[in-house]
Amino acid sequence: MIAYVRLSTHSEEDVKNFFNEYQRALSKYRIHQVKYIYNMDESGVRVGCPKGKSIIVPTQVKELYTASPENCKSLTIIETICTDGSPPIPPVVICPGEKIMENWINDNLTGAAVIAVSKSGYTDENIALG
Question: Structural domain of residue 59, as residue ranges?
Answer without folding.
Answer: 34-129
